[in-house]
Amino acid sequence: MFGNYKSVEDMLKPNSNAPWGNRLALLLIDIPKLTDYELSNPIQFIKAAQKLIKRKRYSYATFLLDKLMEMVHKLKGPEVAAKYMYKMVRNSSLSISNMIGPKEKMALLGHPAKGVYFILFGIPQSLIITMVSYMENLRIAFGSEKEFIDQEKLTSCMKTAFEHMYKAASVDVSI
């Protein structure tokens, strides 16, 4: 969406076209049913999911929703826009969010940060997955309703899934 990374110095220059502030896009996608073939070939599954997401991302519905939210924000204010967004997501059970993080090492009050995580609160999903990059390393955080999901089982399943994807990617490097 933004093209490439902009440093703070670039954003502070006069007449800079660098993006500032929070931008929110919502992409509603049904969770696909898996077949045995897709389970045995995670790279094919990822490619199919990527194709579906790209198709939905560049559809007119996404463009029109963005313009509608922009108008609601300008005309009615951020509180009304937030309520409208909340109403749209309250009937979904899973939320996945990602954010591009800094590429350079950062410090908070002079203390270097080893990593950056974020999690969304106050949204009505049963399971929330957030991802952020920091110095080109991906950080993933999970949040869920109390006692909604077995933490050890989720961790084990995610480890297994990443191992399968890594093995498949090592064999098929045409991603």
TrEMBL record:
Query: For this chain's UniProt record, which GO biological process terms are given?
Result: triglyceride biosynthetic process
Q: GO CC terms for this protein?
A: plasma membrane
Cross-referenced InterPro entries: O-acyltransferase_WSD1-like (IPR045034), O-acyltransferase_WSD1_C (IPR009721)
Q: Where is the O-acyltransferase WSD1 C-terminal domain?
A: 20-165
Q: In Gene Ontology terms, what is one molecular function of this protein?
A: O-acyltransferase activity
Tell me the leader sequence span: none
Q: Which PANTHER family match?
A: O-ACYLTRANSFERASE (WSD1-LIKE) FAMILY PROTEIN, O-ACYLTRANSFERASE WSD1-LIKE ISOFORM X1
Indicate what this protein is called per its UniProt record. O-acyltransferase WSD1 C-terminal domain-containing protein
The lineage, from the top, is: Eukaryota, Viridiplantae, Streptophyta, Embryophyta, Tracheophyta
